[in-house]
Write a structure and sequence with these properties.
The structure is a single chain. With about 120 residues, this protein is an all-alpha fold. The chain contains four helices and no strands. It has one domain. About 70% of the residues lie in helices and about 0% in strands. The longest helix has 28 residues. This is Magnesium citrate secondary transporter. Keywords: Membrane, Transmembrane, Transmembrane helix.
Length: about 120
């Protein structure tokens, strides 16, 4: 059975949203509005990544179901993600584009994770 964190409605919605973006990208282009295709994956990125990290840390490292990620870890994940995808990667890969609104989407995702997903099991 899946860990409880992976059954949280917000996590499930994030996985479904990301799947929809990928379906739109590879199977039926144009299905979603451009605003959704531009920012939905960025919005769900940190809640999904941080939830996977939280489950791994709870079960493999700390072995405490009540462990929650410190706010500084969530903030630093947001900073590193924003710097990598919006500053470094566009210089290293010609197909990557920097978009300041992506940074906002990452921040909203980090806030959603901190507010609803980062709770003791």
């Amino acid at each position: 059975m899946l860990p409880r964190e992976f059954r949280h409605p917000l996590f499930v919605a994030g996985v479904a949203a990301y799947g929809l973006v990928q379906f739109n990208r590879f199977v039926v282009p144009g299905l979603l509005l451009p605003l959704l295709t531009s920012y939905l994956a960025d919005l769900v990125c940190l809640p999904l990544e941080l939830t996977v990290a939280l489950v791994g840390l709870r079960r493999l490292y700390f072995r405490r179901p009540g462990f929650v990620l410190p706010t500084a870890w969530i903030f630093s994940t947001w900073v590193v993600t924003a710097l990598w995808f919006e500053l470094a990667l566009p210089h290293l890969q010609p197909s990557a584009t920097a978009d300041p609104l992506d940074v906002v989407a990452y921040a909203l995702g980090a806030l959603a994770f901190g507010g609803w997903l980062n709770r003791p099991a």
